[in-house]
Each structure stands twice: as C-alpha cells, then as structure tokens.
Design a protein that fits this description.
Elements lengths: L1 E3 L2 E4 L3 H12 L7 E4 L32 H4 L5 H6 L3 E3 L4 E5 L4 E4 L4 E3 L2 E4 L3 E3 L15 E2 L4 H12 L5 E5 L3 H12 L3 E6 L11 H13 L3 E4 L3 E6 L5 E6 L4 E3 L2 E4 L3 E3 L10 E2 L2 E3 L11 E3 L4 E5 L5 E3 L4 H15 L9 H4 L14 E6 L2 E7 L4 E6 L6 E7 L2 E8 L3 H12 L7 H7 L1 H5 L2
Parallel strand pairs: 1-7, 2-3, 2-8, 3-4, 8-21, 10-17, 11-12, 11-17, 12-13, 20-22
Antiparallel strand pairs: 5-6, 6-7, 9-18, 14-15, 15-16, 19-20, 22-23, 24-25, 25-28, 26-27, 27-28
Helix pairs in contact: 1-7
Bound molecules: dihydroflavine-adenine dinucleotide and nicotinamide-adenine-dinucleotide.
Length: 441
C-alpha cells in the first residue's frame, strides 16, 4: 500500500504551513504536494500556545491561529488546503525514512514516496527524566510543545484556581508560562539553574528588569539550582518539588520548560547533522540533493555571521527558511513544471540571507532582538519601566540589538543597524544616544 507525491513536507508545524503557502503561490498542481503530520490539526502558529491560548478571558482557539495569519492575513485552515489540492495527512507519524529510495513509512505501515522532501519535523521538549529526575508523567506536570500539551495545561490550570505552581526552567517557556499562570491567578515559583532568567539571551541587567516585574506580580525566583525529585500524593499527583539542597516547595502543579531537541532521528546516519540539526546549505538543501530541511530542525549557514552554521529555534526563521526552500525547489517554476527539473536548479536561488530575529510578549511587555548576543554590551534607556535596550558590539561593529517597548519604526531601526553591522567609532556616543543612534543611522 502506498501513495506517491512530487513534493512531501514531513511535519505539520509552522514551517510546513509557510512552505505550503509558498508552494501555492508558485503554482503547485493539485495532488502534487502532501503534508504529513503527527498532529491531528492543520499547521498552526505555535507561539500562540504560550500566549493567547492560555488567557483566562477570550482565549485563542483554532481555527483562529492556523498559519499564516502573520504572513498575509490569509489563514491556512483545512479548507484552504482542500481548495489548493494539497493533501493533509494528519494524525500520522512517520516512523522511518529512506532518502536513497525516496520513501517514508508511516506508523500505520503506509509507504509515501516523493521526488522532493522537505523535512520540517521541528523539535521535541526535553524531559526531566533525561536529566535523571523521575515522575514528570504525573497528571499535574505539564510540558508545552503542541496543541495537546496546551489543552492539557489549560485543564490543569483550571483545576488549580488560586493555587500554586512551580515552573522549572527560566527560558522562553518558563517566562511565558509563568506570566500566563499569574494572569490565571496562580502563584508561581520559578526554579532554574542559571544566575538569571533567559540566560541564553538576556544580560544580567535586562534579566534584572524582567525579574523585578515578575516579582512585583508575586513570582518567587529560586535561582542557581535544579529540582532533584517530586513528592506525590496517594493518587500520584505532585504535591511538592524537592530541590538539590533539600528545599521542599509545595505546589498544586508544575510546568517544565527545560529546552528542546531537534527531531533529526529519522535521518541520523542518512544526512549530515550539525549543531544538533540537519545541516543544509544556503538553499536549505541537505547532504542529499532531493531533501531540504527547514525550521527548528535545520542547521543553516548565517551569512551575517560569516556563514557560521546555526540552528535557530524561532518562528521567524521557521517561516523564512520554509519560504526559501520552496523558492529553491521551484526556482524554474515557469520553465520546468516537473520536480526532477526543479531539483536540478536550486543553484538559481541565492543563498538565504537571514537576520536572526527573536521576540516575546509577557504581561504588558514586549521585546524584539536581532542578530547575535556576543561581544561587548552597551545598555541604553530607562530600565525603571520605560523603553530600554542594548547593543552588542564585535570588533567595533553592531552585531546584535535588543529593545523593550519599541514601536515599528524603532524595531526596524535596530534591525537595520544590525543588518548593516554599523561601525561604531565612539562607544560612549552610542551609549549616550541609545535608541536614537539606530533611528538616525
Ligand atoms: P514545529 O514544532 O512547529 O512543527 C514540527 C511538526 O512536525 C509538528 O507538527 C510535529 O508533530 C511534526 N512531526 C515531528 N516528527 C514527526 C514525524 N516523525 N512524523 C510526523 N510528524 C512529525 N518562537 C518565536 O520566535 N516567538 C514566540 O513567541 C514563540 N513562542 C513559542 C511558544 C511555544 C509554546 C513553543 C513550543 C514554541 C514557540 N516558539 C516561538 C518557537 C516556534 O514555535 C518554533 O520555532 C516553530 O514552531 C518551529 O517550526 P517548525 O515547523 O520547524 O517546527
Ligand atoms: P530554553 O532553551 O529557552 O530554556 C531552557 C531553560 O531550561 C534554561 O534557561 C534553563 O533555565 C533551564 N534548564 C536547563 N536544564 C535544566 C535542568 N536540568 N533543570 C532545570 N532547568 C533546566 O527552552 P524552553 O524555555 O524550554 O523553550 C523551548 C523552545 O520553545 C525553545 O526552542 C524556544 O525558542 C521556544 N520558544 C520560544 C519562544 C519565543 O521565542 N518567544 C516562546 C516559547 C518557546
């Protein structure tokens, strides 16, 4: 039993949705493209799961956040795929892949063959068990990666009205979920191993601002430590977390956000792997010329960083790598309708030129970051609750910029100085002028 397609997208997340949109814009014929996803719903904007989806009032629910609302205000609902002749194979896990034979085998045993494959399998949440802590399968311990996790988190939150939560991890999931829990009137204790929150991105000074805001809303931080075990009641529900130094933190629920691992396993030994992801070139093409990789699972060269290979775990890069891969695949779309010809011509597409972009929104705060956060840091602005930010300088040039509370023009300005790697002759002037420096560059 089997089906054959010209193009197959493996994975049905953010990158898959944006790839489908690009295929449709470039004129894919009905029946040529298929998306296979373990999830039971059409691709959606995953960032909504830790924001609008968790709101106590008027929470976001599908179909309101199917991809690609951010791109063109056109929502890719299941009907959209039908209208465009794109096959959605949902609730279907691919259990093996053979890039030499160009086949995928699903958990149900179906063989799906392709001429061109786009791997968009994203990532999975790391489990506490992988760090030697047992019991994170308890009913009131939540991870957050997909819609099913988010629905479960909402149910657990609702059963904890006015209760307490422990959030494990001080990264994106930890910070956004802690804010959501507070908004749902649940008292939060955050536990993480680093000296400050968002250690992968924030400077101590930036982190100090947000921690202060969280504390003012009742969040308690326990930093520089990890949990070692859970305490459970007779029904197996977690009632407390036990920290490394023996401290016992009673709780009604736990949210865990301790990082992710890219879903590369199907291709281990078949495709080149780097930085924990599937290595691609500037056209998102893997070490097998018929196979592309996009989104969280792809490790791609970032021109801006001298071609350094990076794996970025953010939605903007998922959207844009997807679009770029399809552009490369369909490069000669007018002259060559057939994929066999198309895969011969990806070299006609320029290398992906990407400016890394991350953002978050919590409470009434909203920040954006562009570039890389290495080198000398110059902070600017009002850290008492106004507009503030930072530049990162490397060899006298701006290579990263952060801004809290900016408007569109201001965010565009900081993006621009990073994109141009603006040379700074006088660091004290940059410090003095702050955001104005980017605005007038
Ligand atoms: P994504 O994870 O979206 O999709 C992967 C898909 O592949 C899933 O549908 C999965 O089921 C499927 N799949 C995997 N293996 C499979 C198999 N063997 N068979 C079939 N299907 C398989 N970023 C940001 O910049 N700003 C933000 O605010 C947020 N917020 C945010 C909130 C939450 C809760 C999460 C979990 C993540 C974010 N992110 C974010 C990160 C962002 O969502 C992420 O970078 C993109 O979703 C990556 O898109 P991908 O399509 O690569 O993977
Ligand atoms: P993360 O990498 O942002 O943070 C992981 C955190 O886990 C670390 O900061 C650390 O505090 C903690 N940690 C690591 N090992 C630990 C251990 N053994 N015990 C306790 N804590 C430990 O990952 P995340 O917060 O889990 O986010 C998952 C993914 O979702 C990431 O790819 C992230 O980019 C994405 N995401 C992005 C956004 C956004 O961009 N706004 C929002 C939500 C999620």
């Amino acid at each position: 039993m089997g089906r054959a397609f010209v193009y197959v997208i493996l994975g049905g997340g953010v990158a898959a949705g944006y790839a489908a949109l690009e295929f449709s814009r470039r004129g894919v014929a009905p029946g040529e493209l298929c998306i296979i996803s373990e999830e039971t719903v059409a691709p959606y904007e995953r960032p909504a799961l830790s924001k609008g989806f968790l709101l106590p009032e008027a929470p976001a629910r599908l179909p309101a956040f199917h991809t690609c609302v951010g791109a063109n205000d056109e929502r890719l609902t299941p009907d959209w795929y039908k209208e465009h002749g794109i096959e959605l194979v949902l609730g279907t896990r691919v259990k093996s892949a053979d890039v030499r034979r160009k086949t995928l085998i699903t958990a149900m045993g179906e063989t799906i063959s392709y001429k061109v494959l786009i791997i968009a399998t994203g990532a999975r949440a790391l489990k506490l068990e992988e760090f030697g802590v047992k019991g994170s399968d308890a009913v009131n311990v939540c991870y957050l990666r997909n819609l099913a996790d988010a629905s479960r988190l909402v149910n657990v939150m609702q059963s904890c009205n006015d209760g307490n939560a422990v959030v494990i991890g001080g990264g994106y999931i930890g910070m956004e979920c802690a804010a959501a829990l507070v908004t749902n009137r649940i008292k939060v204790t955050m536990v993480f191993p680093e000296a400050h929150c968002m250690a992968r991105l924030f400077t101590p000074k930036i982190a100090d601002f947000y921690e202060g805001q969280y504390e003012s809303k009742g969040v308690n931080f326990i930093k520089g430590t990890v949990l070692t075990s859970f305490e459970n009641d007779s029904e197996g529900k977690v009632t407390a977390v036990i920290l490394k130094d023996g401290t016992r933190v009673p709780t009604d629920m736990v949210v865990v956000g301790i990082g992710i691992r890219a879903n590369t396993a199907l291709f281990d030994g078949q495709l080149a792997i780097e930085k924990g992801g599937i290595k691609v070139n500037g056209r998102m093409q893997t070490s097998n010329s018929s196979v592309y990789a996009v989104g969280d699972v792809a490790a791609f060269p970032v021109k801006l960083f001298g071609g350094d290979i990076r794996r970025l775990e953010h939605v903007d890069s998922a959207r844009k790598t997807a679009k770029h891969a399809v552009a490369a695949i369909m490069a000669p779309e007018k002259s060559a309708k057939h994929a066999v010809a198309a895969i011969m011509a990806p070299e006609k597409t320029a290398d992906f030129d990407y400016l890394p972009f991350f953002y978050s929104r919590v409470f009434s705060f909203s920040w954006q970051f562009y570039g890389d956060n290495v080198g000398q840091v110059i902070h600017y602005g009002d850290f008492s609750g106004g507009k503030f930010g930072a530049y990162w300088l490397d060899k006298g040039r701006i290579i990263g910029a952060f801004l809290e509370g900016g408007n569109r023009e201001e965010y565009e300005a900081i993006a621009k100085v990073v994109k141009h790697k603006t040379t700074i002759k006088d660091v004290s002037e940059l410090e003095r002028r702050g955001l104005d420096y980017a605005l007038r560059s």
